[in-house]
Amino acid sequence: MDDNSVYRSLFFEESDDNLQQLNDNVLELESEPDNMDLVNEIFRAAHTLKGMAATMGYDVMTKLTHKMENLFDFFKSGKLKVNSDYISLIFRCLDRLSQLVEDLRDEKELSQDQISDLLEELEKVEESVNGSDQAAKTPEEEQDTGALTNVFEHLEEADLDVIHQAITGDYKAYSIAIRIDKESLLKGPRVFLIMEKLEQEGDVLHTEPSVDILEDGDFDTDFRLVYLTRDDLDMVKHNVESNSEIDEIIVEPFDEEKQQAGEKQQAEAPKTVEKQKAQQKQTPVKAAAKAKPKTTKNNKTSAAHQHANARNQSIRVDLTRLDRFLNLVSELVVYRNQLDDASMRNNADAMRDALEQVSRLTSELQDLVLKIRMQQVSVVFSRFPRMVRDLAKELNKEMELVVEGEETELDKTVVSELSEPLIHLLRNSSDHGIEAPDIREKEGKDRKGTIKLSAYQEGNRVIITLEDDGKGLDPAVIKESAESKGINTEGMSDDEIKKLIFHPGFSTAKEITNISGRGVGLDAVQAKISELGGSLEMKSELHVGTKFIIKLPLTLSIIQALMVRIGNESFAVPLDVVERVVMLKENEIVKTTNQEVYRFQEGLIPIIRTDRLLQIEPDPNKKKFAIIVKIDQKYYGILADELIGQQEIVIKKIDPMLQKINKYQGATIFGNGSIALILDVNAICNEKKGTE
Amino acid sequence: MQMILFKMNQQYYLISAASVEEVIDTVRITRVPLAPNWVKGLINLRGTVMTVIGLSELIGVPSSKNNRNILIMKKDEERKGLLIEEVVEVVDIDKKDIQLEKTDKEKHYLGVVSLENKVANVVDVNHLIF
User: Fold this and answer.
1) Residue extents of the structural domains in chain A
2) Is the domain A3-135 a CATH 1.20.120.160 member?
3) Which of A26, A542, A589, B103 has its CA 20 to 30 A from that of B4?
4) Which residues contact residue A516 at a Cβ distance below 8 angstroms, ignoring those fewer than 6 apart?
5) Domain A558-691 belongs to what topology?
6) Which residue numbers delimit the Histidine kinase domain (chain A) (predicted)?
7) Rounded CA gap, A282 and A593, in Å?
8) What are the φ/ψ torsions at residue A567 (nearest 5 degrees)?
9) A376-553 in CATH: which number?
10) In this predicted structure, what is the pLDDT of residue A258?
11) Which CATH class is domain B2-129?
């Protein structure tokens, strides 16, 4: 029912996109100030943004965008050279605009005060370019369409009757004439918004041209209406003026004599038909107006509710994927019908055939649904270059963010939760990691620090690494800091001391900056990552840099697995890490001084005896199989007594207490109801590597 | 308050019914290698994988051979199974009937209750398993 809310959510989505694009482009512009294509692109995005804000009647936002657009116009016409001051100003405008959009999302009213400082700055820039000739231009343009009039051309007797009745009651009748700004691109919606505003407080009785024509925007700039309301003249005027893109208005109490004088030359039109028509047109508008939550006054709860929904509801899906989905579903319908038919005829063969197809389609659909839920990490990454630039300015450091693999896909829920921990790590690297340029130079490093953010898929996980070439963690400093905070570091190795940065309430920065916060930090990052089912590792070397490695599950629930038996017990091994399975005899396992290895391809790979590892009684009569897995570019052979087969399994979470054993990713339930544990091959192999 | 009376290795125990969501017959338990000894393994409870804990191992009493029931314990949104020998009945116990109230040493014993022809230990293990 609420038409506006549809526009609103669309507006937010598109504004976010446009602002992001502007941010990206402006950042690029800073490094290529002479790229005119870029300026044009920026100009277009800014213009779209302005248009949308204006359509929604968000004046404050429109004003700021408009002024900012002027700046781009100067770049375009060459009146102004792009420099870092202007870029910073634009960035501040963009930030403010993002803030405005956020406020609107939270149903807050915008005020002029929010942008006055920026407007002033922008105006100064404008003045410096072309003095005041711009201001002189506008008024003269306005005079060319003739005077606005509020005399109606064909008002019917029935309408007059209603007006009479209304006036004798509490109501007052006004004749209103409105001239829409002739620059307005969307006259129709503008009229709709004005009408809606008016209908909240009264009734629009008659319009000229008719409502249909007005809402289609099929008129010049002027329109007139008769309005019945209890409000006084100033209030009505205010209500009309609260809409944007209005050039001029006349609001007067309805004057029948003046009206009749103006009407004399008009021929009498057929009445009743028109009247009915008018009513029909009115009703839906009124209904819509009534259903609309009056966000400014009451219905706060419903608005807040809608708002909560709007934020987390939608996902953008590649159209080809959606088309494939539709194809698969229609195929499924075909086979369902075949099944129906075959079961009616009791034809077992036909049924089997159809079932086969259905099972194929189910798995394809399942695959596709997972893919539809996937989102590129660029959704999160795209805002970071801008962030690092600002951080560099703020910290007086020189640094650059290199982003790799931003097309890597992850489940949407994971992606949307990812930005917070990553921002935190980035800030940490910028603030604590990268040194000041002079210090870097002294140490023989490039003045400009590099932070590298990369994402790639490995097996059924996505690995995100964040690496800086900064000063790295100094165990001595951490130790001192930890002790001053009352953390006991006695007998700790350097590695253990480095891990203290994940300790709640720990911060290594000598002074607290507003960038990496007050030590509410890495522990929160770690908590967030494990909440997402992932893990966080850190490698750091003094004066060389720090690297954070985040491993996240690709999808949250379904994987392909190889089912194996060890002793009498069944286990699942995620198939994506499995390179190959080989049968081997006991004498092919070679004992070295501290481990057992197996000759695979040209090298020797470590063998992991799962029965010993898990303390399972081995079955000496069974043949041995080695499941060759590849972890971190290295091969390992995992021994199993028997292969059961390959199967698609649903990962079920297990008790945190059992997760602590660090051998199982989860459990799964078979078709017959029995349970098997899923081996955490990554953890098992990493542990093996640790003991080498 | 309502309590569940159950048997384990010829001894009787009482546990508050408020912490028990349901009682099921023992189903197949899948062992979890390397888990603590009081974790009996995992069961499939209507499609959910649930950890089952052996009460006898948990509170350190001799275990019985034949365990017929699992109490499904709940705390907020978490569920865990508690393996016992057999549920006898649900009884109403007045709080003041609980004698020999717990000492600080034995946190899972709340005391004992004397019933018609037997004496039952009142246990509370929620703080141990959740």
Assistant:
1) 3-135, 145-300, 319-372, 376-553, 558-691
2) yes
3) B103
4) A424, A427, A428, A430, A431, A432, A507, A509
5) OB fold (Dihydrolipoamide Acetyltransferase, E2P) (2.40.50)
6) 310-556
7) 91
8) 60, -125
9) 3.30.565.10
10) 65
11) mainly beta
- Is the per-residue pLDDT at B3 higher than 90? yes
Residue B32 has pLDDT above 90, yes or no: yes
Q: What is the pLDDT of residue A676?
A: 94
On chain A, the residues whose CB falls within 8 A of the CB of B30 are 569, 667, 674-677
Q: Could A615 and B48 be called an inter-chain contact, meaning their C-beta atoms sit closer than 8 Å?
A: no
Asked if B33 lies within 8 A of A663 by C-beta distance, the reply is yes
- DSSP letters, A536-553, are EEEEEETTTEEEEEEEEE
Chain A residues whose beta carbon lies within 8 Å of the beta carbon of residue B36: 657
Q: What is the predicted pLDDT for the residue at A224? A: 82
Class of domain A145-300: alpha beta
> Distance between CA atoms of A435 and A454, rounded to whole angstroms?
21
Contact residues, chain B, for A674 at CB < 8 Å:
28, 30, 44
Of A652, A661, A666, the CB nearest to B34: A661
Q: Do B30 and A664 lie within an 8 Å CB cutoff?
A: no
Q: How far apart are CA A431 and CA A419, in angstroms?
A: 18
Q: What is the dihedral of CA A466, A469, A471, A475, to 10 degrees?
A: 50
Q: Nearest 5°: phi and psi at A49?
A: -60, -45
What pLDDT was estimated at residue B90? 93
Phi, psi of A158 (to 5 degrees): -60, -40
Note the pLDDT of residue A505. 62
Contact across the interface for A669 and B44, Cβ inside 8 Å:
yes
Query: What are the chain B neighbours of A614 within 8 Å (beta carbons)?
Result: 33-34
Q: Which residues pair with A537 in a beta bridge?
A: A549
Cβ of A655 and B48 within 8 Å?
Answer: no
β-strand pairing of A603-608 with A634-640: parallel
- Cα(A94)–Cα(A19) distance, integer angstroms: 7
Smallest CA–CA distance, residue B23 to chain A, in Å, is 19
Mean pLDDT by 10 residues, chain A (692 residues): 64 83 84 82 83 81 85 81 83 87 83 83 81 44 53 70 71 81 74 78 78 74 81 80 77 71 47 46 42 39 40 69 89 89 87 87 82 83 85 87 89 81 86 87 88 86 90 83 77 79 62 47 77 80 89 75 91 89 88 86 89 85 86 86 88 87 89 88 82 58
CA atoms of A638 and A608, how far apart (whole Å): 5
- Flag the least confident range among A263-277, A357-371, B72-86, B106-120: A263-277
Q: Which residues of A332-345 are buried (b: 16+ CB within 10 A; e: fewer)?
A: beebeebbeebeee
Say which residues have a Cβ less than 8 Å from residue A141's Cβ, sequence separation at least 6: none
pLDDT for A257 equals 66
Specify the residue for token string 């000739």: A133
pLDDT bin (cut points 50, 70, 90) of residue B30 is very high
Rounded distance, CA B23 to CA B72, Å? 6
ipTM of the complex in this document: 0.91
Angstrom CA distances, A68 to A43, A121, A228, A488, stand at: 9, 10, 40, 55
A587 is catalytic: no
* Res A573: pLDDT: 93
Per-domain residue ranges for chain B? 2-129
CB-nearest to B30 from A616, A663, A674 is: A674
Q: What single-letter amino acid sits at A341? A: D
**Distance separating alpha carbons of residues A171 and A231, to the nearest angstrom:** 8
Query: What are the distances in angstroms from CA A126 to CA A39, A68, A129, A288, A383?
Result: 17, 10, 5, 43, 29
Say which residues have a Cβ less than 8 Å from residue A506's Cβ, sequence separation at least 6.
A481, A482, A485, A487, A500, A519, A521, A522, A523
Q: What is the pTM of this model?
A: 0.46
Size of interface A-B (CB pairs under 8 A): 50
Q: What is the mean pLDDT of residues B45-68?
A: 89
Active site residue A307: no
